[in-house]
Amino acid sequence: MALGALLDAGASASEVEALLRSLPFDGWKLHVESALRGGIAATNLSVEVTDHSHHRTARSIIDMIAGSELPERVRARSVAVFEALAAAEANLHGTTIDDVHFHEVGGHDAIVDVVGFACALEVLGIDEIACSPVAVGLGMVRSAHGAIPNPAPATVRLLEGIPSYGVDLGLELTTPTGAAILQALAGSFGAMPAMQVEASGFGAGDAVLEQRPNLLQVVVGQTADVGAAAATGQPVALVETNVDDVTGEVLADTVAALLEGGAFDAWMTPIVGKKGRPAHVVSALGDLAQVGDLTAILTRYTGTFGVRSQQLERWPVERSFAEVVVEGEKIRIKVGPHRAKVEHDDAARVATTSGLTVQQVISQAEEAYRRTQ
Fold first, then answer.
1. Which of the ends of the chain has fewer CB neighbours closer than 10 A, N or C?
2. 3-class DSSP state for residue 65?
3. Are residues 247 and 101 in the same domain?
4. Could you report the per-residue pLDDT of 272-292, keeping only the tens digit for each?
């Protein structure tokens, strides 16, 4: 879907395929066709293979790409994706990267998918990648190891440090390969950065869904001056309800559910309601398309008899994520233009296992991050 979206946005399929022929194996062909998903025109990309060998070691794939005649940036991006995949698999199976054996992602089709994505980026001249929060499904999916949870364990591992949310849909919305692409190549996550849009495209998934169009969208553009773009903010919806008959525990669960449901932010505000009763306003800020989902969560968790909504604008600051190690444990750092903030949950986890105070862990994490700059 990612490669299909880039082709839909203007990357030449023939140029991408010509670059891919630098890979040291044959037995594959790109198949590109138009598709409709939810009434939206998109490109459906598949890789036809005649060699169905799927069993390769991570090291053999990385060495093969690194030693190919692909352009330098294509090699670097492709290797980074497979290294991210290998690191996740090694961690999950208690082994090393050199001992990881790929199954689903070891075949010609998966290699062509990943390297083809890097080739399409090169054809379009893409220097930076930003991504919205990532959706995952639920239930169980099939794998080479049998039935596994959805999202797959490797996907969850690869999404560490990446804002994600669950969707009530029994489909693998984000695969390990897709998560590895984001982990390795995306530089920031959140709202679309300030840019002058030049092209856009949709990559179509094979499944046709009733609930939503099965599409991946890319937007291509040139970085724009933030000050010029600040006159118009990102449209968002504020969804709220007043409640005076629920416990603090239920309020806390509601805020957590709103955030897990994809809200940009959620909070509660104490007020004095009718007849002098103490009450709370439960609020959620989300994308305009999320109003229905956020309303359903508010209603289900609080039992409220009514929800209100209004459209606002917001001006989020672009941010990225980094990692440092304290006491042998990874700690995420949220990085903005003017500050870097330690993720408190990570600091609390390390404090519990190390015997340090949370403040000491935060101080060490901040110092470790400063040393990387």
1. C
2. helix
3. no
4. 988 899 999 999 999 888 899
